[in-house]
Amino acid sequence: MNRTVYVNGEYLPEDQARVSVFDRGFLFADGVYEVTSVLGGKLIDFEGHSARLTRSLGELDMVSPVSHEDLLQIHRELVTRNEITDGLVYLQITRGAAADRDFVFPDPDQVPSTLVLFTQSKPGLADSPQARVGIKVISIPDVRWGRRDIKTVQLLYPSMGKMAAKKEGCDDAWLVEDGEVTEGTSNNAYIVKGGKIVTRHLSNDILHGITRAAVLRFAREAQMEVEERAFTIAEAQGADEAFVTSASTFVMPVVEIDGVKLGGGTPGPVALRLREIYLEESRKSAV
Ligand code: PDD
Predict the structure, then answer these.
(1) Residue nearest to atom 11 of ligand 1 (CA)
(2) For the chain, what is the domain count?
(3) What pLDDT does residue 1 have?
(4) What's the domain range around 51?
(5) From the CB of 245, is ligand 1 less than 6 Å away?
């Protein structure tokens, strides 16, 4: 494969794309990212991802190297050049490459931020066979830092969580802090009991998922009851169903938590209905 990737103003073959070894993303995980899915050649929830990117940058005193309009144009250009029908666009902005390794932030007027975007093709993304059978999760302690609302590239612990899940024959991990579920390693977590959808309230403890916002809006529009509060693993294991949401998996049913099967071990009707609504509605507003 030789994709075209975007690096600091240039569209380059992936094997010619370079960033400096002094880049702060590489040395300090000093960067933020976004993942936007593509269905039918169009970007899903682009406005939400762009708005969250602006917020992440602002929280870290980072400057965006491009405008919102330019960003949309770059996304579209990469989708076109790489002939992406279904897949995703990954975007990363770091605080750039200062002359030396130094914990102190460089002056943004002297050191421009680094902007990288690339695509991943995933034909049939919305038709994932996994969504038909659901995923199994384990729980692990949430030992991440206290600003999970900022979408930084510090993803070692989420990676370790997925590896721990894999080791136990599962697909993902739910993170638990003070006895309550915060979120999944790379998704927001939900349970359904008696028709009511429960998901953790927004705070610095979780990422404010763009898919979460859309799914909750669609659920309320469909007269489903939504409660935004924390829940425990024990409560989740006693729920009728569970699911996770993210830009890359949309709404994904969860059928087992720490070895306990939910709803007979098959995807629940609320999760499947929300997946259907989300895909239908977000395709309509795709750009
Ligand atoms: N992950 N929580 C965490 C910790 C995440 O990393 C993500 C997204 C979400 C869901 O957010 P959204 O609905 O905006 O994608 C929640 C992306 C997909 C990733 O790292 O690949």
Answers:
(1) 209
(2) 2
(3) 73
(4) 4-125
(5) yes
Residues 87/124, Cβ–Cβ less than 8 Å: no
Residues 261, 147 share a domain: yes
Tokens in use for 34?
Answer: 């976004």
Q: Are residues 269 and 226 in the same domain?
A: yes
Q: Which residues contact 217 (CB under 8 A, 6 or more apart)?
A: none
The dihedrals phi and psi of 272, each to the nearest 5 degrees, come to: -65, -40
Whole-number Å distance, alpha carbon 192 to ligand 1 midpoint, is 20
Give the separation between CA 92 and CA 276, rounded to whole angstroms. 30
Residue with CA closest to ligand 1 atom 17 = 186
Query: Could you tell me if 108 and 137 lie in one domain?
Result: no
Residue among 151, 166, 193, 261 flagged as catalytic: 151
Q: What spacing in Å lies between the alpha carbon of 256 and ligand 1's midpoint?
A: 21
Check if the beta carbon of residue 257 is closer than 8 Å to that of residue 267.
Answer: no
- Convert the pLDDT of each residue in 79-120 to its tens digit: 999 999 999 999 999 999 998 999 999 999 999 999 999 999
Last residue of a domain, one of 101, 125, 149: 125
Same domain, 174 and 108: no
Pair 15, 92 in one domain: yes
- pTM for the predicted model, two decimal places: 0.97
210 lines ligand 1 (CB under 6 A): yes
Residue 166 a catalytic site member? no
Residue 208 CA, ligand 1 centroid: distance in Å: 8
Task: Check which CATH number belongs to the domain holding 28 and give it.
Answer: 3.30.470.10
Q: Are residues 84 and 152 located together in one domain of the fold? A: no
